[in-house]
Design brief:
By secondary structure, the protein is of the alpha/beta class.
């Protein structure tokens, strides 16, 4: 029994053990392994065709492709540029010399002049895109929803990003970093985590800047709607609220967007105007993927309006749970305008984000937009509905226990089944990469270790009961390199935590930049590394959305929050962190003094420095700016000295995650001393081009 289980797990890629951040070995229990095999429906139907479903190869290496039935055959390789190579296979394999031309090629096999099989052959470059201009630059990262602006409707929007880009250009920055902009759930705006999206192929439409749309300027009805006293009163409330009210913002935005959509259909689509033709071109380019996405959201909206317990497709009436069902086709035919509405919203969002990318080019930002690719999608969203056979729907991705998350993390996201993804010739992965690189000069791949392995949590079990499942690392990395080159998009791999040396080494060879956080880069005695320690091939930041801001770290605000939310499994763990944080403050002051960066008049006694002053904040960033790292990122929250972090891992509704606004409106940044001083600190060591 055990031997058979071991063999099945080896075939399925379920790893027998792992080491946690403390170096302790954990064996996957039989219960965990059996549950994961069941979740991935393994073993499933084995591939027994003449050719594999796909082969991914490096541009400089020969390729051997097995022929399933072992009978000699003729083959031809149709290269992406139209060239054709042809020969005859040996009995068991097709042998190809190194192809040398990266791209998506097609191998066809025939006998007696009759085609019997075909497969994609993806040839990949060894290196991801390496722009010369992205050297020793600094950037600003913002949570888009949290941007305050006089023009927005209580939530940062795509048009507000133009002002951020303008500020960054004036400040000498080379990039603007963003939280994931993936499509969420218009029917349920309170589902606001950008890391739990409906789809990673499409955009969050709640960030549309309504008042900037061409239709808004044309439509008197929408103007009158917004001018109503009750609307203006509510708009003021939403703008002045301390936290983002997603439901309130959605109610106002979608009410006006509905009016504008009716106007668009009547004034543009009926008349076939140039703007209508632009929309039709967008629909054609989006193809079946766009239509299926829009159809999902039309269905979800329809069912949710009848019963708000129908949270996603797994809860829909069974007849509608398959995207190719007859009932789904019938719904699409009778709700054509509603499906088109969701396509139209995607078009508006796409146009506005394209305008921001163009502004980056106009203002000369060396990198431009630095976007974020989430590690997974929500169980009940559009991406899993359309591609549900590729997902282990009942399993969840997470990570084992660590210092910041003692109970482990359960992200609630279903993972791709490795064998099924390969069986689909990686098409959904390729489409996802292209969508996220479309307007990005750099892309952060969240939890980049997921290219090699992911921590799966079985159905019904807790976060500390999971096991790692391996993925086709070389294939996924090769395709990432290929799309990076084609889209001229720099890749940053979020490689925090327990990442195997093999992953770090291979990513480094591929030119993928490492992601370094100030908090974690310590010497064995707990002191922070000197500036010169940071590797050149890295992006460095002080903190990130899942960790305390610098001011919050200094005051122990994160420890207070975890205590209040009962996130410590043992009281002594909390006491250890309080003691450790006190030592960290002392080390930080000593290390800044060692670097000659301790502000004048500041003692090395942390008890004599109760607040993290703006000068101390800048000193930490000056330390990072001096490093050899190609890119350094400043969080807007740290620039403004905010104490509360964007997200508290391990919570959903218990904490105001993804709702915090910045304390200063974007219009006031150019005249704010903190902003000017931070820009001066960063450009002192990382000057803008010219």
């Amino acid at each position: 029994m055990t031997n058979n289980l071991d063999a099945l797990c080896t075939q399925a890629g379920i790893l027998p053990d792992y080491y946690d951040i403390w170096g302790t070995r954990h064996e996957a229990s039989d219960e965990t392994r059996l549950a994961l095999l069941e979740a991935m429906q393994f073993p499933g139907a084995e591939h027994d065709g003449v050719l594999p479903p796909v082969v991914v190869a490096w541009e400089d290496q020969p390729v051997t492709i097995p022929v399933g039935d072992g009978i000699p055959a003729d083959w031809q390789l149709v290269l992406e540029d139209g060239q054709i190579m042809a020969s005859q296979a040996k009995a068991s394999a097709i042998e190809l010399a190194a192809i040398g031309l990266p791209g998506y090629h097609r191998l066809e096999v025939s006998r007696a002049g009759k085609s019997i099989a075909a497969m994609p052959l993806i040839v990949c470059p060894r290196l991801s895109y390496q722009p010369e201009a992205a050297h020793r630059k600094w950037g600003l990262s913002v949570q888009l929803y949290g941007l305050k602006a006089a023009s927005n409707w209580g939530l940062g929007d795509y048009t507000n990003l133009t002002a951020v880009v303008d500020w960054a250009a004036e400040a000498g920055a080379g990039l603007v970093g963003l939280n994931p902009l993936h499509a969420l759930f218009p029917h349920n705006p309170r589902h606001c985590s950008p890391y739990s999206p409906s789809s990673r192929q499409f955009l969050n439409v709640l960030h549309i800047g309504v008042a900037s749309l061409p239709e808004y300027a044309e439509c008197a009805e929408a103007g009158a709607q917004v001018a109503e006293p009750a609307f203006q009163f509510r708009l003021t409330e939403l703008r002045q609220a301390e936290l983002v009210d997603y439901a309130g913002v959605a109610a106002l935005k979608f009410a006006v967007l509905e009016t504008l959509y009716r106007h668009f259909r009547a004034s543009h689509l009926v008349a076939g105007t140039p703007r209508a033709r632009e929309f039709r071109a967008f629909q054609n380019q989006g193809g079946e993927e766009l239509r299926q996405f829009a159809l999902y959201h039309a269905l979800q909206e329809h069912f949710f309006s009848q019963d708000n317990a129908l949270w996603g497709w797994p809860a829909w009436p069974e007849a509608y749970r398959r995207h190719d069902a007859a009932e789904v086709h019938a719904f699409a035919a009778t709700h054509e305008a509603r499906v088109e509405w969701h396509e139209w919203l995607q078009w508006l969002a796409d146009q506005q984000l394209a305008a921001v990318a163009e502004r980056c080019r106009e203002r000369g930002l060396a990198v431009g937009l630095y976007q974020d690719l989430a590690v997974g999608v929500d169980k009940g969203g559009a991406e899993t509905w359309v591609h549900q056979d590729l997902y282990a729907i009942e399993a969840r991705v997470g990570c084992p226990p660590d210092d910041f998350n003692p109970l482990g993390q359960d992200w609630g996201l279903p993972p791709w089944i490795p064998q099924r993804l390969r069986g689909a010739a990686y098409a959904p992965y390729i489409t996802m990469l292209r969508a996220n690189m479309k307007y990005a000069g750099a892309l952060r791949v969240d939890h980049v270790m997921g290219l090699m392995r992911l921590y799966w949590i079985p159905p019904g079990m807790k976060g500390d009961a999971g096991a790692y499942v391996s993925y086709p690392f070389q294939d996924l990395l090769g395709i990432l390199n290929l799309e990076s080159q084609r889209n001229q998009c720099l890749i940053v791999g979020e490689d925090l935590g327990t990442v195997p040396d093999e992953v770090r080494h291979t990513l480094r060879e591929a030119g993928v930049m490492s992601y370094k956080l100030f908090y974690f880069e310590r010497q064995p005695d707990g002191h922070f590394f000197p500036a010169e320690w940071f590797p050149e091939q890295s992006l460095v930041a002080a903190s990130t959305h899942d960790l305390p801001t610098l001011a919050g770290f200094w005051k122990g605000r994160d420890i207070e929050t975890r205590t209040a939310l009962n996130l410590y499994p043992r009281p002594e763990m909390r006491e250890q962190q309080i003691e450790s944080r006190s030592q960290d403050r002392a080390r930080l002051l000593a290390d800044l003094a060692r670097e000659g960066l301790l502000p004048e008049g500041v003692a090395q006694d942390p008890d004599a420095v109760p607040e993290l002053t703006p000068a101390l904040l800048r000193a930490i960033h000056a330390h990072l700016a001096r490093s050899p790292a190609r890119l350094v990122l400043v969080q807007a929250d740290d620039m403004l000295g905010l104490e509360d972090q964007a997200n508290q891992p391990g919570t959903v509704d218990e904490h105001p995650n993804w709702r915090r606004k910045l304390a200063l409106a974007i219009e006031d940044w150019p005249n704010d001393e903190r902003c000017a001083a931070m820009a001066a600190t960063m450009t002192a060591d990382r000057p803008a081009i010219g």
